[in-house]
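Notes to self after the call with IL:
- keep both proteins in one doc
- input above output, always
- annotate only the second one for now

Protein 1:
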Amino acid sequence: MIYNFTVLALFYANVVVTFAVIYILLDITDLGPVVDHYETSTLEGKHWFDRVTTSLYFSVLTLFSVGYGDVTPFGWSRAVAIIQATFGYILPAVLVIQYMKDSEPAIVLRSKRRNPSSLTFSGQSQSRYNSWSNTNK
């Protein structure tokens, strides 16, 4: 359980940092600045640390929510933000489906009858079903 949580946290951190690096590169090349509306310095006088923290902040908010509106992408950063937001909406569903797929035995009904002889099992599910059916007789 802790291993799965650690892997999930590292995966999300990787996604956040990867998109933050993309935002930083787009900001540096002036293809798509990410503007913090409450920042006192101008875009030209932006320090590198401000670019990094603003990009990380915007990346986290875009992945996990819709955002607050205090940081706005422009140019190509808007397209990247759309991709990241879509990824942030789809990823939890994919993880839940994958978890459910891995945690339950794979049972497929061949017909609409509830006859145990008509069940098809894959992998270790056959031995699980056999041990379950033997204990419930």
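Protein 2 (the one to annotate):
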Amino acid sequence: MPALWLSCCLCFSLLLPAARANSRTPVCDCSGKSRQCVFDEELHRQTGNGFRCLHCSDNTGGIHCHRCKEGFYRQRDRDRCLPCNCNSKGSLSARCDNAGRCSCKPGVTGDRCDHCLPGFHTLTEAGCTQDQRLLDSKCDCDPAGISGPCDTGRCVCKPAVTGGRCDRSV
């Protein structure tokens, strides 16, 4: 008989938080991204609210479907999470900021980290490699403004660029 009484008490204690949830106040706070949740006793002990959302939509996740999954972003709360599409070779991770811009490896540029900066070449897992031909010790050229290697101690500027270092627009 004591075992039956103990099991009834245990069952009642697990159902009590769920029963309290049947009032008119919403218990599944899923940020509008899910209509399903389950009661989690451990979460209830930690936070005072034990309801965890299930099947979050729009590429969201978390206890309340409140954040984008890794590799997704959104500009405002309640917006749909959009894919970052970060280039796997050129970006530091699959994450991006709230504008969809990825964090790039050295020598790499672009919102998706998908091409090399001027003066760099060959996008690899380590980033882009600086063009050694442009780093002639006889010249102090601006890599963004030169079209090729130093020519007898003089910088060779791109069209519409001028200056001894190729550092001024025409």
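Annotation: Confidence is low (pLDDT under 50) at residues 5-23. The longest strand covers residues 91-96.
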